[in-house]
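Lab channel / #folding
Pinned by the channel admin:
"Please post every new chain as: sequence first, then the structure tokens as a reply. Keep commentary short and put observations after the output so the thread stays searchable."

First post following the new format, from NK:
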Amino acid sequence: MGSVLVAYVNVDKCIGCGKCTGSCVNNAIQVFQGKAVVIDFNCLGCFYCVAAAACPKQAIETKPRFSYFSEEEKLRVQASFLIKQINIIKGKLKKI
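Reply from TO:
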């Protein structure tokens, strides 16, 4: 059993605006009773929600999740995250 990171919402920072819900590629973030929550089993661990700076209060953070992911699956998730970060940076550089 290995550990991977997943997103979670720090409810002390969350203002319930819902901007983060549109940033999740797997619909893992929902607003419930005025606060955003991450549905753990839907979170791919890609952290696009964090990289996209979708939260004006920076309430989306990461935490370890223990799972049965193989090393190959962990690397695939990490690669996906890095590719998305690179694309975000490329987009910002085009604006300069």
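NK: The chain has a mean pLDDT of 80.
TO: also worth noting, The helical segments are 48-51, 71-94.
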